[in-house]
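User: My collaborator sent over this chain with a note saying "see what the structure looks like." That's all I know about it. Can you take a look?
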Amino acid sequence: MTGKSSRGFCLFSVAAASVAGSAPAVADYAFNLPSGVTPISHEAYRLHMLAFWICVGIAVVVFGAMLWAIVHHRKSRGAVPAQFHENTRLEIVWTVIPFLVLVVLAVPATRALMAMDDTKDADLTIKVTGQQWRWRYDYLNEGVGFFSNVDPKSVDASKRGSGIDPASVDNYLREVDQPLVLPVGKKIRFLFTATDVIHAWWVPALGYQVDANPGFISESWARIEQPGTYRGQCSELCGVGHAYMPIVLVAMNEPEFDAWLAQQKALQAKAATAAERMWTKDELYAKGQEVYGRICAACHQPNGQGIPGVFPALNGSPIATGPIAGHLNRVMNGKPGTAMQAFATQLSDVEIAGVITYERNTWGNKTGDVVQPAQVKQARK
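Assistant: Without extra context I'll predict from the sequence alone. Here is the result:
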């Protein structure tokens, strides 16, 4: 099913979101908008400036006439107010002029909107899926896909009582563990959707925002002109983890991108092979510890105690110490009506096996159980 999203030109932003660099995100005291790094963003900037100068011209004429009238027709000069009720010629003038102004603005705006929808002849297609609270990127026809999560350092600094000053974390809540990587100079077609609630993919440097709606596919495209790192975020209030959905886009020259893509294909092939072998308890525990810290600790806390009344504790919980089948089902399928998500599509067999093994053998949970990736694979059937 396809549908039009509510999208718009970026006529406002914290300009720091659109520039490369590793400095913490701070407000930029610029007097104008960033022009971006794509044809669409440049067109948005030109439209903004056109509307701005038309408004300046109108303001000069209107306020100039008002000022002239105030000075030359003031009471101290003996001015006597004219007595009239209508002027057909004046009414025609102040109707026609705004109409012409709207036409002047509408023609290039319509041309720009049509260009935004022209996704044909793309060199690469990326499916962007939003879900609470991360992004998934699938390189269609390339066999590469991954989740992009907020970086662990930001998560650690955001925890209650962490003792970490967020200002000491580079790009606090604006960095990810795996960025979206794209080639420079190529036409990239984006397909946007969501799995749960409405999200909005917004990278100011690209010049637009597109809603990601569950059950719908929205389209847009970009041709990035300059290599660099460009940052954005989900701009739709999508739940308590809304602040944990940053977007980081890395634009590379084509040879670098081709090398990166080949590396990702090799890593995913290796991961598929790894899921077939038997893992030791120590290997699974280490993998699970990494996954737990990246995905689960924000809710259930690093000590497994959760947040009373909000997120349940895993330390000593009947799920983490009970039958393995129930633990597998909870991690893979979630719990409807709660914040517990289904991770079957978010995590690999190895990651699910690792995090379950970790949860059953850490804190006060000493079950000794080991869950193999093959068991997860079987549970998917």
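A starting point for your reply to your collaborator: Confidence is low (pLDDT under 50) at residues 1-27.
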